[in-house]
Amino acid sequence: MPYTKSLSILFFLILCFCKSINAQYFEQEIKKALKSEPRFIAYFDSRGSFISTNGVRVFGVKAGLQYAEKLTFGIGYNQLASRYTNYIEKEGQTKKVELKYWYISPYVEYTFYRDKQWELMIPVQIGLGESYYETNGDNKILNFQWVFSYEPAIAFQYRFLEFFGAGFGVGYRLMVVPNTQLEERFTSPVYMLKFKVYFDDLMEKLKQLN
Length: 210
Fold this sequence. Notes:
Layout lengths: L1 H19 L2 H12 L3 E14 L2 E14 L3 E10 L4 E6 L2 E22 L3 E18 L5 E20 L3 E14 L10 E10 L1 H11 L1
Antiparallel strand pairs: 1-2, 1-9, 2-3, 3-5, 4-5, 5-6, 6-7, 7-8, 8-9
């Protein structure tokens, strides 16, 4: 199955990374990074995944503080961008409904390799939000419930045009607290596209021009 293959690849990559670093060295790197002056970062985040067996896209925007270009803490907002419809039985009637799903996502990202243009990182985020059905026509909310997810991943990013970066990653969304009132399955592999703006460098350049 595609799910199993993608998950196996992700865990293999994370395992290779974990075996390649010394725990004491990792701890020293984190402590050293946290002593540095943080810089503000922001980027758009587009994630392809699956709901049940259907491919969907989740759009997000993130902002955070990066320490020594090594460790980043931030928060984001994510929302199901694809139109996903279904038919359910409610009150003895068959209703056409559209799935709605959004979540707030605190995240941490560790960059374990960097040169002038390339970055390799492990981002991990949790998601707290809600999912429900919205009826077609009268927009009535059905089967509402709060949900909680966990998404580890591995990703790379390429810096171009001095102030911008784009990247790709693969991860896995695990629904720790799913909406048990919905028929759909949300746990699935995740494929990420990122577009990043290096605001500190951009502002510094603008200051030099003035």
